[in-house]
Design a protein that fits this description.
By secondary structure, the chain is α/β, with parallel strands linked by helices. Helix content is about 40%, strand content about 15%. It has 13 helices and ten strands. The strands form two sheets. Strands 2-1-3-10-4 form a five-stranded mixed β-sheet, sandwiched between helices. The protein has a five-stranded mixed β-sheet with strand order 7-6-8-5-9, with helices on one face. The chain is globular.
Length: about 325
C-alpha cells in the first residue's frame, strides 16, 4: 500500500507528446491524446469514476484516450514519478512519504472526502474499542505506519500496544485470515465491510476518525508528476475535468456507475460492486464544496501526526504536496 521507489526522485517523464487537441465545435474529433492511469490496487469502487469517465466518453470529450492499468511491483507512485504513467491512484500517507524523499508527485484530487477505513473484527470477538486490541492478533502488511496508528488509537482508550501481537499477512483474504490466523485487520469498509454484510457476517469496526481528527486524511487521491504540472498543465486540467465528471456521475447515478465498472471488469463480484457503490457514492464528495477538493489543514494535520510518530525524516511542505488548481469550478 505504501510501496514507493524512492530512488526515482527527480526522474524525467515518459516523453509522451500530445498528438492533437480535443473535440472541436462542429463535433469532428481530432486525434486523441493517449494517457495512462495506474490504479493503486485491483479495480474496485474507489476507481469507479475513472471507468465511467473512460467508458462514458468524459475523457474523450477532453481530448484524451485513457488506458487504465494495474500497478507493477514498484507501485503507482513510482510509475507516476518516473513517467511510466501519466496519472495514478495513491494515498495521502504515501504522497507525504514520497514528498519527504523528494519523489516528485502531487495530489490533484481527493477521491473520497473522509477516511472510511478502520480496524475490523468478527463481532463475536468483542473487539469494539482500541483498548480491546490488547491480547489480540493484528494482521497487516508490515508497514511501520500500522503500529503507529494502532498505538495512537490505543493511547486514547488507555490501551497498551505492547499487549498486541502484530503479524504480517500481506494481501491475504480478510475473511480467511480472521477465521484462521488473526483477530482483527485494517480494512476499507466500502469494500470488505460491505462484503461482510453480503456474507451475513457481522463486524465490529473501530474507525480511525472516531479517535483522532489527525487521522481523517485523504485516501485515496489522484496524483500526477510535478513535470506534468509544470510542462503540460492543460493535460492535467483535461484529465481532472474528465475524472470529476466521472465521479459526479457516480455520485448521482450509483447503479448505472456500478454497471459500468462491472462491464469493464467482469471478474468482479457484481453484487458486491452494486452494494459497495450504493454505500460509497455519497461519500465521494460528502461535505465538500465540490468533488476532489482538498484542504491544507488535512495535509498539515496528518503530516504533523506522522512526524510526531517518527514516520517522517523531515517536515512536509504541505502546500507543494497537493493542489486544487485543476478541479472544475
Amino acid at each position: 500500500m505504501l510501496a514507493l521507489m524512492l530512488t526515482l526522485a527527480g526522474c524525467g517523464g515518459n516523453g509522451n507528446e500530445p498528438s492533437g487537441g480535443d473535440v472541436n465545435g462542429e463535433g469532428a474529433e481530432k486525434e486523441l491524446r493517449k494517457v495512462k492511469v495506474v490504479l493503486d490496487w485491483t479495480p474496485n469502487t474507489n476507481h469507479t469514476g475513472l471507468y465511467v469517465a473512460r467508458d462514458n466518453g468524459f475523457f474523450k470529450k477532453q481530448g484524451l484516450d485513457v488506458e487504465i492499468v494495474q500497478p507493477g511491483q514498484d507501485g503507482a507512485d513510482a510509475m507516476v514519478a518516473s513517467g511510466d504513467a501519466d496519472f495514478g491512484v495513491s494515498y495521502q500517507e504515501s504522497v507525504t512519504m514520497a514528498r519527504i524523499a523528494d519523489v516528485p508527485i502531487v495530489s490533484i484530487a481527493a477521491v473520497i472526502q473522509h477516511n472510511t477505513s478502520g480496524f475490523a473484527s468478527p463481532k463475536a470477538k468483542g473487539i469494539d474499542s482500541p483498548k480491546k486490541f490488547e491480547g489480540q492478533r493484528y494482521g497487516g502488511w508490515g508497514a511501520p505506519l500500522e503500529e503507529s496508528v494502532i498505538d495512537s488509537l490505543m493511547q486514547t482508550d488507555g490501551g497498551d500496544i505492547g499487549k498486541v501481537d502484530i503479524l504480517s499477512i500481506g494481501d491475504s483474504d480478510f475473511f480467511s485470515a480472521v477465521e484462521r490466523d488473526i483477530d482483527f485487520a485494517w480494512i476499507y469498509y466500502a469494500w470488505t465491510g460491505i462484503e461482510a454484510e453480503l456474507r451475513g457476517e457481522e463486524l465490529n469496526m473501530v474507525y480511525l476518525t472516531d479517535y483522532s481528527d489527525k487521522l481523517d486524511y485523504y485516501t485515496p487521491v489522484l496524483v500526477t508528476s510535478e513535470k506534468n504540472i509544470e510542462s503540460d498543465p492543460e493535460l492535467v486540467k483535461a484529465f481532472t475535468a474528465g475524472a470529476a465528471e466521472g465521479y459526479q456521475f457516480a455520485i448521482e447515478h450509483p447503479e448505472d456507475a456500478a454497471d459500468v465498472l462491472i462491464k469493464a471488469e467482469p471478474d468482479l463480484n457484481a453484487e458486491l460492486v452494486k452494494a459497495s457503490q450504493k454505500w460509497l457514492s455519497p461519500k465521494y464528495q460528502d461535505d465538500a464544496a465540490r468533488w476532489g477538493e482538498q484542504k491544507l489543514s488535512v495535509w498539515e494535520n496528518y503530516a504533523t501526526w506522522m512526524l510526531d510518530h517518527g514516520l517522517l525524516e523531515g517536515k512536509l511542505d504541505a502546500e507543494q504536496a497537493f493542489t486544487n488548481e485543476f478541479l472544475p469550478e
